[in-house]
């Protein structure tokens, strides 16, 4: 005989009017975050996982910074930058980089480079390359790894710690990751060539970087960048000045142009990955420094400060770039003239200065 089961009634809680009102708060039924204003109608994943992850007393950290350094500086002092902003949090990385994209993009790059090097092995490309080009690779192309490592480890890494918002931190930190991975790509490629080419001078690049007169102005400039304490100055001097007048000049203006006619189709894929990385960092730098140049309260002062930085670092960058000219002459077949490469880099530098509302220093046209 079936037993009838009665549903037990649970009494509902009774609240006073004041208590009932306390149970609700604005947007309490919403399942989306609303503590920031997204750039478009709906927040992107980048915005959800990046914006305000680093608290700020100016926005949500009502109790103030919870720690400070021995000298009394607390959190991320805005005084660590000569540039000022009415709202540092307005900057969003145009590349929308966050943790997943970093791993995914870099994994794809490393996979592509590894496949290209392996294909070079199976196709016996390395043994067929022009001997003069092999010497350029061992002496100069791999010397560039030291510049990338220096910037990634000692310029971008300290700068990303000192920047005042999580969005700026992330953008510069990704730049550091890219620089260090690119330096590693070059050194791993160097080891591969050492295995494939007889008498390949696999370790000479360090001596070239440290003592070859061609590279000493570049080395001096990179080491100077590592000594800049102001994070915004370091990021500006690197992305706006150095990368245009030295980095792009050598990577794209020479290596990318000269490799293929020497029977080398592998090196351009590696250098091209580094160029793609640099372009991503420059998009972020453009957005950041344009925001600061157009700031409603500090724009004029910021532009004056950035103009001073241009005058300070451009002469050294021009000297470093022009000092690399003998490398263009080490190949019997002149695929590209140094002056053509320099004109292209100079034009892009002038365009960037104009974009930021700055005047191009006279040294560029000398």
Can you describe this structure?
The model has no long low-confidence stretch (mean pLDDT 90). Helices cover 61% and strands 0% of the residues. The longest helix has 31 residues, at 166-196. It has 14 helices and no strands. It has 366 residues and is mainly alpha-helical.
Care to give the gist of this entry?
It contains 14 helices and no strands.
In terms of structural class, how would the helical and strand content be classed?
mainly alpha
Bin the helical content.
55-70%
Mean pLDDT: 90
Oligomer: single chain
Number of strands: 0
Rg over C-alpha atoms, rounded to the nearest angstrom: 26 Å
Q: What's the N-to-C terminus distance?
A: 105 Å
Instruction: Give the low-confidence spans.
Output: none
Based on Cα principal axes, name the global outline: globular
Tell me the β content. Answer: under 5%
Describe the sheet with the most strands: none
The number of helices is: 14
Order of helices and strands: HHHHHHHHHHHHHH
Any descriptors?
single chain; about 375 residues; mainly alpha; globular
Layout of strands and helices, then pairs:
Blueprint: H1 17-22, H2 45-50, H3 99-122, H4 125-128, H5 131-141, H6 144-162, H7 166-196, H8 204-211, H9 216-226, H10 231-258, H11 267-293, H12 299-323, H13 325-328, H14 338-355
């Amino acid at each position: 005989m079936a037993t009838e089961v009665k549903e037990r009634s649970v009494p509902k809680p009774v609240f006073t009017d004041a208590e009932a009102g306390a149970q609700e708060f604005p947007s309490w039924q919403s399942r989306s975050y609303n503590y920031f204003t997204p750039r478009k109608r709906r927040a992107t994943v980048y915005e959800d996982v990046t914006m305000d992850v680093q608290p700020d007393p100016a926005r949500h950290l009502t109790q103030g910074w919870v720690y400070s350094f021995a000298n009394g500086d607390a959190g991320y002092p805005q005084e660590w930058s000569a540039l000022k902003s009415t709202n540092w949090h307005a900057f969003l990385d145009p590349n929308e980089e966050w943790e997943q994209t970093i791993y995914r993009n870099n994994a794809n790059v490393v996979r592509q480079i590894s496949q290209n090097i392996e294909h070079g092995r199976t196709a016996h490309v390395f043994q067929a390359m022009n001997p003069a080009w092999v010497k350029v690779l061992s002496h100069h192309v791999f010397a560039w790894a030291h510049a990338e490592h220096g910037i990634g480890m000692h310029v971008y890494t300290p700068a990303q710690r000192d920047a005042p918002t999580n969005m700026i931190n992330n953008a510069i930190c990704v730049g550091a990751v890219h620089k260090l991975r690119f330096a590693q790509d070059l050194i791993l490629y160097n080891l591969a060539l050492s295995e494939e080419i007889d008498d390949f001078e696999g370790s000479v690049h360090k001596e070239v970087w440290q003592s070859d007169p061609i590279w000493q102005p570049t080395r001096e400039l990179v080491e100077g960048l590592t000594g800049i304490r102001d994070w915004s100055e370091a990021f500006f001097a690197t992305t706006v000045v150095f990368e245009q007048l030295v980095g792009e000049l050598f990577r794209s203006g020479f290596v990318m142009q000269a490799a293929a006619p020497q029977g080398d189709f592998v090196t351009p894929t590696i250098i091209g990955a580094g160029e793609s990385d640099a372009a991503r960092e420059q998009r972020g730098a453009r957005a950041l420094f344009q925001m600061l140049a157009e700031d409603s309260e500090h724009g004029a002062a910021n532009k004056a400060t950035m103009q001073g930085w241009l005058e300070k670092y451009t002469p050294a960058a021009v000297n470093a770039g022009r000092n690399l000219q003998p490398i263009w002459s080490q190949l019997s077949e002149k695929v590209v003239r140094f002056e053509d490469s320099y004109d292209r880099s100079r034009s892009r530098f002038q365009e960037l200065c104009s974009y930021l509302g700055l005047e191009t220093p006279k040294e560029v046209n000398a």
